[in-house]
Specification:
A hairpin with a 4-residue loop joins strand 6 and strand 7. The protein has 2 domains: about 55 residues; about 100 residues, no CATH class. The N and C termini lie far apart (about 65 Å). It is an alpha/beta fold.
C-alpha cells in the first residue's frame, strides 16, 4: 500500500511540474491524489515523497517585467535639466504617469523540482489595476483607477477627461501649463 501511495504522489507531483503548475503546498498535491484515486493519502506522506523526489519548498524569486532602461533615465535627466532652466514660478507643471497595482499575490514560497527555477512572473497577477495620475505644481491631483492594461485607448480617455476637468477648474490653463509625460509608447499614440 505504501508503494502505491508513493507512486500516486510521484505521478501527480511530476505531472504538476511538467505542466509548470504552481505547487504552493503539500496539501494541494495530497488533495489531487485523493481525488484522482481511491487512496487516502495524508499530507505527511506527500511531504515525504516530494522530499525523496528532490523537491524543496523554497522562497520565490520575483522577476521584474522590465527595469528602468538607460534611455528612460536619460530622458528623465534631460527633462529635469530643462525644467530647472525654465521659469517655473510663472508656469504650472502637470506631470502625468501611470502605474499598476499588482500586489495581490502574497505567495512567498513554493515547492519545486530539482534543477528548476523558483521564479514567478509578476504578470501572472490578476486582476491588474492600472492607476493613471496627474499631479501639478499647484498641489492638485487627478487620478483614475481601471481594471485593464495601460494602452493608448485608456490613456486617451484619461486625457480627454483630464482636459474637461481642467477646462472647468482653470479655463486658461493651456496658457501657463506644461504637461510632462514619460517615454511610454502609448503616450505618443
Amino acid at each position: 500500500m505504501k508503494e502505491a501511495k508513493a507512486d500516486a504522489i510521484a505521478k501527480v507531483a511530476n505531472k504538476l511540474n511538467e505542466d509548470d503548475t504552481f505547487i504552493g503546498s503539500c496539501a494541494q498535491v495530497t488533495s489531487l491524489v485523493n481525488s484522482e484515486s481511491d487512496l487516502k493519502v495524508k499530507n505527511y506522506e506527500t511531504l515525504s515523497v516530494m522530499k525523496a523526489m528532490g523537491m524543496r519548498f523554497k522562497k520565490i524569486q520575483h522577476v521584474p517585467l522590465k527595469a528602468n532602461s538607460d534611455r528612460n533615465l536619460i530622458i528623465r535627466q534631460h527633462w529635469a535639466i530643462t525644467t530647472i532652466e525654465k521659469d517655473h514660478k510663472s508656469r504650472v507643471f502637470l506631470n502625468i504617469d501611470e502605474t499598476w497595482l499588482g500586489i495581490c499575490d502574497f505567495r512567498r514560497r513554493k515547492w519545486r523540482a530539482p534543477d528548476t527555477t523558483n521564479s514567478v512572473a509578476a504578470l501572472s497577477l490578476a486582476p491588474r489595476v492600472t492607476m493613471l495620475t496627474a499631479v501639478d505644481t499647484l498641489g492638485n491631483v487627478y487620478f483614475s483607477l481601471s481594471q485593464s492594461n495601460s494602452n493608448h485607448a485608456l490613456f486617451g480617455i484619461f486625457m480627454q477627461q483630464l482636459v474637461l476637468k481642467l477646462d472647468k477648474e482653470r479655463p486658461h490653463w493651456r496658457k501657463n501649463t506644461i504637461v510632462t509625460l514619460d517615454g511610454a509608447g502609448y503616450h505618443r499614440a
